[in-house]
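A protein record in our archive is deliberately plain, so that people and models can read it alike. The tokens are whole numbers drawn from a learned vocabulary of local backbone shapes. For reference, a complete record is included directly beneath this paragraph.
>
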Amino acid sequence: MKKIKIYLDYHCFPVWVYNDNGELIRNDLPKELSEDKEVDDAFVEIQNMYDDLFLDNSIEFKYIGFSSELDKQKYLKMIDNAVNLIKSKLGNSYNIEKKVDV
């Protein structure tokens, strides 16, 4: 079965699509959702917020994290909502795996 992994990495779109053999097809939305603005906007916002958790300048790169536990919980809820949105639109055509560590 095809798989979608929700995986956060600095400056990478958080959706990773794999074929039936487990090979990475694309680091983007699956083709079935490529025109879906609602899903795209949700994951672009997730990625932008994730990137903001890092300090990246010409001198250093480091994780700075959330300003509060409440902000972290809101962010995790946003990810859950986006995953549920994908599930509702794709049905059972993909196995969806969430690997989020923040």
Summary: Strands lie at 3-7, 15-18, 24-26, 54-56, 61-63, 95-99.
